[in-house]
Amino acid sequence: MCTSAAFRRVALAALIAPALVLSACTEQRQENTEQQAQQQAEQAGEEMQAGEEMRQFRAEMESQLNDLDDQISDLEQQMQQAGQEGQQELQSTVQTLRRERDQLQGEMQQLEGASQSEFQDMRSDMQKRLNDLQRRTEEAKINAMQSKQEVQQYAQSRMNEIDREIQSLDQRMNGAGQDVQSQYQSQMEDLKQERKQLDQQMTKLENASDQEFQEIQSEFASALAGVGQSLRQVSNDVESALQSAGQELQEESQDMQQSGEQEG
């Protein structure tokens, strides 16, 4: 009897064991399938987000390149009012600016099919080059102005615009969190100091005689265009930081959601 009972237990175990193995394999395959589906969903989400980021960047670049094209066209009109020597100098400047602007426009097409890392590298490089082009164009525009009054009117309007943009940037940073504020606080302080120094140069310009104006026009043009360049750089950096922070929050939210689903 004992031998018979033992035999039945062995036989039963032999029958159950394959079923257990099969069940374990099935569960493992199901787990692998779920992990693959999760990875594919995450990859699809990242690709979609990267594509949207690229489209947004291209739209912003196109807008700024169009504005730059208008400024270069304005510079060409100013060239017609300059003397012969001034026309030759401006013509060379305009040709260089337009060539570099068109080169950036052409490189926009290379963003198609670029990987995320390639896009990030290209974006940083293109933003810096565009910013430099904008600075040089504005500086040339101010230097091409024929009177102190014309420079003053333009400068006052531009400085008011810069003040509004700094205020808007301050508000964005205040709502971005402590990390972003700490990271770019020094740049913002430097920018505000540059803007403050510009007031002093504006006063110097206003009190200048016609002869003195000719001597300080170039210095003032460089200072005003430089503040604009600094503002654009800080704005680009802060915007990149905000996008990165937004991506991190989204990833943390997805991780929490997935963790909750697994626990459930």
Would you write up a description of this structure?
- The chain is an all-alpha fold and 264 residues long.
- It has two domains: 100 residues; 118 residues.
- 92% of the residues lie in helices and 0% in strands.
- Helix 4 packs antiparallel against helix 5, helix 4 packs parallel to helix 6 and helix 5 packs antiparallel against helix 6.
What is the topological layout?
Layout: H1 2-81, H2 84-107, H3 116-143, H4 148-174, H5 178-206, H6 210-263
Helix pairs in contact: 1-2, 1-3, 2-3, 3-6, 4-5, 4-6, 5-6
Helix and strand string, N-terminal first?
HHHHHH
How many runs of DSSP E, i.e. beta strands? 0
Strand content: under 5%
Largest sheet: none
Task: Provide tags for this entry.
elongated, 2 domains, 264 residues, mainly alpha
Outline of the structure:
The protein has 264 residues and is mostly helical.
